[in-house]
Amino acid sequence: MRALLFVGIGGGIGSVLRYALSLYIGRHVPLVFPLGTLLVNITGCFLIGVFYSFGVKYTGFNPEWRLFLITGICGGYTTFSTFSYDGLTLIKQGSILYFMLYVLGSVVLGLLATFAGAAIFKFS
Prior knowledge:
mainly alpha
């Protein structure tokens, strides 16, 4: 039950952060391209790498903190469903090039960001 509480609280925080950042970017950078979702997912991947490698390097890192930070905050902050929705919207608008850049950029940059975050604590 305690684990569910950590994930739930973290997920709520992450979701609010995602919404606020996406809203801010959408208001200040008017593009057809879903830049807000892309940036949220890339930064979330980076944080997952940081938190994961921190937990590997420092064995005293409490498993509940992992649940709170990785599963909760990062899980609520990043979003595959919005990524899918944005991709569908781009296709429906006929923006096939933007769709392909979005998908490729999300996957490649997301993985690179995760590894970059992990490298901070010299993940091996």
